[in-house]
Each structure stands twice: as C-alpha cells, then as structure tokens.
Write a structure and sequence with these properties.
This protein is an alpha/beta fold and 175 residues long. Helices cover 35% and strands 15% of the residues. It is globular, with a radius of gyration of 21 Å.
Length: 175
C-alpha cells in the first residue's frame, strides 16, 4: 500500500471518529453547525387542528388575539425563550440551554413536555446554537445547562444536567 493511500485512510478514520463522537456524545465541546429544522415546540403537530379565521380576519381587520399584548407564561410552564420574557414572568425561573442535536437535551425536553416543569418553576427553552449572547452572559459552555435566574435575569445558580437529564434532577437543583 502506498503512503498516499495510508494517509487517505487515516484521514478518513479521523473524520469518521470525530463525526461519531459529535453525534453520540455531544459533550465534546465541539459545536456542530446549527440544525435549522423546526422543533415540534415551534410548529403545531400535524394532528392539531388549525385555528379558524375569525370574521374580522376575513374582512381585513385584526382579530382580538392579534391586537392583544402577548401573555406571560404561567408559573410552572415550559416555553420557548423570547427576549423580555424573564421580566414578564412571575415566580422562579430557569433557562434550559437546549441543542436539537444533543440526545441528552432531547431526553430532558421530552420529559418536560410529557410531565411539565416542577411545580411553580417556569423553564425557558434556549437554543444553545443560536443564542450565543445568552451563553456568554451566563457562562454556559455545555448544552443541558440550567441557569436559575431572578426577576431581573440575574443568575442565581446553574447546573449541568448532562449526566442525569431529568425533571427530578432539575427539581433537586432548584435554589
């Protein structure tokens, strides 16, 4: 076998190993390209009925829901993060830094969807790949990080739930 073929095979093994680590472990510190596919939290499920248009909408007038101020989530909710939502939400709050490509994040996300957030705690799902500003603000370097914040968005404490991504672990970590 020639030296060129040996080098090519070694390069291929290296690339395949890096890809396997990124897909399986996701805690390597390597950030893959963002997956722009919408999550089920961002779009309604195919089985959910579409909202019917009101007569006002058909006449070109804004409906009551279009003109109303957005409502803050109730305590104990699990919702997507939006700028300004922390100040609008009462009670204890936590930011969940979630990556769609991370199996540990998906496990916690699935459990939060199925069982809900711990009583009274509002959990905001933050896109780990897109919200680098928030990652820098709170010093987040790994997905599955939970940052507990006060009403002003100041960090109270944080925990990484990578080893046990469960609602029980989230509840145990609450300040």
């Amino acid at each position: 076998m020639t030296k060129t073929r040996v080098r090519a095979r070694l390069m291929l093994v290296g690339v395949l190993t890096a890809a396997a680590i990124a897909l399986a472990g996701c805690a390597t510190g390597v950030e893959p390209m963002a997956d722009n596919a919408p999550t089920s939290m961002e779009t309604p499920a195919a089985s959910e009925p579409m909202a019917e248009e009101s007569p006002d909408a058909m006449a070109g007038e804004p409906s009551a829901t279009e003109t109303a101020e957005p409502m803050a989530p109730a305590e104990g909710a699990y919702v997507d993060y939006e700028d300004g939502i922390i100040a609008e939400t009462a009670g204890p709050k936590a930011l969940f830094f979630h990556a769609t490509w991370c199996p540990k994040c998906r496990a916690l996300d699935d459990e939060l969807r199925a069982d809900g957030a711990p009583d009274g705690l509002t959990v905001f799902k933050v896109d780990f790949d897109d919200r680098t500003d928030l990652r820098q603000q709170y010093g987040v370097t790994l997905q599955t990080t939970i940052v507990f914040v006060d009403d002003d968005g100041e960090m109270i404490s944080s925990v990484v739930l990578y080893d046990d991504p469960s609602v029980a672990s989230l509840e145990a970590a609450m300040p």
